[in-house]
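Researcher: I'm preparing a figure for a lab meeting and need a structural model of a single chain. I don't have an experimental structure, so a prediction will have to do for now. The sequence is pasted below. Please return the structure as tokens so I can convert it later.
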Amino acid sequence: MKDIQNLRDHRDIDIDKVGVKDISYPIVVLDKHNRTQHTIANINMYVDLPRRFKGTHMSRFIEILNEYRREITIENFPNIMAKMKERLNANTAHLEVEFPYFIEQEAPVSKAKSLMEYRCRFIGSLKDKKEIILEITIPITTLCPCSKEISSSGAHNQRGIVKVAIQFKGFVWIEDVIDVVEGCGSSPVYALLKREDEKFVTEHAYRHPMFVEDVVRDIALKLDKNKDIGWFRIEAENWESIHNHSAYASLERENGETK
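Model: Understood. Here is the structure written out token by token.
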């Protein structure tokens, strides 16, 4: 049968990324406390397309996924991307895997246990060398320092999110990054709280007011001490409770740049 994709394209234009998006697929993630965690990921796979080819072979991406079924882990990222380059005659390969990750969480007073969900994403690329970024989205509570200072009673607080992206120099646990972030807000967010827990969390947040600027700076100081991290980017966004806007702060550093 005629292979249309391999025909010469007359427009003579390289394409940076071609491939498949939004594939739901089971993966295995390392779990600090339970060794491994099985979850369902949303996967994107791309390669570059040289100008001489009309198109890529989309079915080959799915074939590669099927070859690595039950073995799609962060450790296998380089192998999967190398296979993509080889099978699709490409110079570069890109692999994005987004998934929910669950950690058993204990309420601060009642000790009631529940599962807390965090959104995680691995972003990989392979050309002459591999690059892999881990991105985690973590909810936090913040209480406004300005509101606390100027009010005779109370202060406004809000739920927010922190996105942390890191490049590895060594091995980093997802749980350890989450612990750093949750310790830099006014309070963590919990899936299950009893009344005694709500009292504790409310009062704890009041004693630890934080701007988004405070959050990203404190996280940066802690991540900078981790020698297994080569680069990081931190974004904090508060969904303001008394304003019609969000508060936002972001910083990006090579490890060792934060003083």
